[in-house]
Design brief:
Number of helices: 10
Helix content: 25-40%
Number of domains: 4
Strand content: 15-25%
Structural class: alpha+beta
Oligomer: single chain
Radius of gyration: 35 Å
């Protein structure tokens, strides 16, 4: 302030010109003219520091818009600004909503967003083959969301099924036990409602897979008979079913923490979540629309009767016995308990070499060149 006063005094009464005074005080001519103009207009007070705040704030929210955004956040407290903007835009298509960053600033000022620790970001990678899910029902994803106990101490094992392309949640049912006995009715009801997919992606655990030939379980055998391709992730790589696991994260936050008082109320929570997730919640991977806007039931109907496996005429057919074996050349070869009562086909591909098949799956190779037939499982049928 003192230097500005001396600078103006040098110009007005000290006999200095503008260029000389600016060089003496080490400022530019533009700055010199600015201080001189302020002095002429406002006197000595014009030389004081002025506020740097902008005179107008075109990005400021009107009170009505701010209240609308705050109400939306309180109604959906686990949704971020981007998701809320998509959600409101669908309900108020003629309203110009602010950018998600502006909405986020509002929520921070209102204390509606807690600070989170920054995490290292990794590039997204499409899971193998799921990138080929170009249309609804090309591939479904199925898994259990990890068991937990409700308030009564009862164990809950939610089975979830989603459509890989549209993220539509087809099924969310609590299971007493994760076994074929309890799981098959849920798949049966889902097939009846939505039809059949081309493939189902799962992990390698029961009831989706087993230790027999081809990793076939009783549930997988039913899928193969229906013409559904088995699509299993690699062991220990849950990220290959990442979009399904991401849904589990939302499910856990919305309806599992804390758990319901009993299994019946927990299932009602699952039902409400499924409706909200499919019809109301915008999905960023879908361009901000909910899954129900894109999903359509399959054109492959669920047959009224389970089809039986058929083989070409040149195949040798054997029925799997009650001990899980087939009789071949006076020898009993074990193929797995999951195939008990099912026909398997044997195709001769070379002299004394046969391929053992169950429908489209080549389960093993039988070699008859030794003293007794030997069966070698196919690593990845």
């Amino acid at each position: 302030m003192d230097q500005r006063v001396r600078f103006v005094a040098a110009l007005t009464g000290g006999g200095f010109g503008m260029s000389e005074a600016c060089r003496s005080f080490g400022i530019s001519r533009k700055t010199g003219y600015k201080w001189l103009e302020r002095y002429k207009t406002h006197g000595p007070s014009g030389l004081e520091d002025q506020s740097r705040a902008p005179k107008t704030t075109p990005w400021a929210l009107e009170q009505e818009m701010a209240e609308l955004l705050v109400r939306a956040r309180r109604r959906r407290p686990r949704w971020g600004p981007r998701k809320i903007v998509h959600w409101l835009q669908a309900r108020y298509p003629h309203v110009h909503l602010p950018a998600p960053s502006t909405v986020g600033d509002l929520y921070r000022r209102e204390g509606l967003i807690a600070s989170k620790r920054r995490r290292r970001k990794f590039p997204r990678q499409a899971a193998p083959e799921l990138a080929d899910a170009k249309a609804p029902n090309d591939s479904w994803c199925a898994d259990f969301k990890g068991h937990f106990r409700v308030a009564t101490g009862q164990r809950c094992n939610p089975l979830t099924i989603t459509d890989a392309r549209t993220r539509f949640l087809l099924c969310c049912e609590q299971m007493t036990r994760p076994s074929t006995e309890f799981v098959w009715p849920a798949f049966d009801a889902t097939f009846r409602e939505f039809g059949l997919p081309l493939a189902i992606r799962t992990d390698n655990g029961p009831p989706f897979a087993a230790r027999g030939l081809g990793g076939l379980s009783r549930l997988a055998v039913q899928w193969v008979k229906l013409g559904i391709r088995l699509d299993r992730i690699q062991p220990g790589k849950p990220q290959q079913n990442g979009r399904h696991e991401r849904m589990h994260r939302t499910l856990k936050a919305e309806v599992v923490q804390p758990p319901a008082p009993d299994l019946q109320q927990q299932q009602r929570r699952f039902d409400r979540f499924r409706t909200l997730y499919n019809q109301d919640r915008p999905h960023e991977a879908l361009g901000g629309v909910p899954p129900a806007d894109l999903y359509e039931p399959s054109l492959r109907p669920y047959p009224a009767k389970m089809p039986q496996m058929q083989y070409p005429d040149h195949f040798q057919i054997r029925m799997v016995r009650t001990d899980g074996t087939i009789k071949w050349r006076a020898t009993h070869l074990y193929v797995g308990e999951a195939l008990i009562g099912e026909p398997v086909g044997l195709e001769e591909v070379e002299w004394k070499t046969w391929h053992l098949r169950f429908g489209p799956l080549r389960l093993a190779t039988i070699d008859e060149t030794g003293p007794e037939p030997t069966l070698t499982p196919t690593p990845n049928p």
